[in-house]
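=== Discrete structure encoding ===
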Amino acid sequence: MCFYQAISRIPLGVAVGLEFTGPMAVAMLSSRKMTDFVWLVLAATGLYLLLPLRATDNIDTLGAIFALCSGVCWGLYIVFGKKAGNSGDSAASVALGMLVGACFIFPFGLVSAGSSMFSPSVLPLAIVLGIFSSALPYGLEIYALKNLPSRTFGILMSLEPALAALSGFIFLQETLSSGQWLALGCIIIASIGATVSARNKH
């Protein structure tokens, strides 16, 4: 819910870049190497460039806050999702998590849209959105985790902000400034570095 509130206000690439600070923080906290300080500084630089801290910034403040809240949720998902996945059938855990999440979000949708959310013109699109934005990606993520080395998976995940920015450019005609691309680059490099450091520890 926070993520969709964010992308309704700020470009997709910026939203994912800010959101990605959640899993990046989890990766950094799992390692205690001195080199992690470099990744932390690089990530902080990227955040500074993305966050609307200056009067000349064109990033909506509320949108940035929603994206950061989404990042907190993503970080918590990694921590608790790993425990849930290790406790039994990981696919069943994902399905149960989706069900609980849907039940939690449903009242917000009902208050916001009322009975129109069940409209024949909206419901099929909502189902497709649910499949391609949540159910299918998380299912593939579980499959990938089982069949790819953890480091490879983490590095591939680190490319998400760039892919999101590219998708926003292709499908939504969103353009980013050179400073925003630089910020995304800092976050991606910091995420890859933190992921590699965390995996090397183990």
Remarks:
- The chain has one domain: 2-201.
- Residues 26 and 38 are 16 Å apart (CA to CA).
